[in-house]
Amino acid sequence: MTKAEPFYRRIGGLIRDEIEDGYFVSDGARGKVHFLNPTAAAVFELCDGAHDADAIASVLATAFGLATPPKTDVEACLASLRAEGLIEAVR
If you classify domain 7-89 with CATH, what class do you get? Predict the structure, then answer.
């Protein structure tokens, strides 16, 4: 039996402000502000509890016209977003 990949969702209570070059995400509970570039912002938005890393990579491949889904890059971005406390795994 293989372990299912987790789905990801944004942490509640964060304030997102779209700017020209991505997002500012404010975490008032921790007193932090984060800047996300456009790609990280897209990954962050896809963390809605319904996408795992494979699904996020597939959506980005389609959106950016990539030949292959950027799974390694998406996994690195997800790890960074988790480390900063912006997303969590839901299973």
Answer: alpha beta
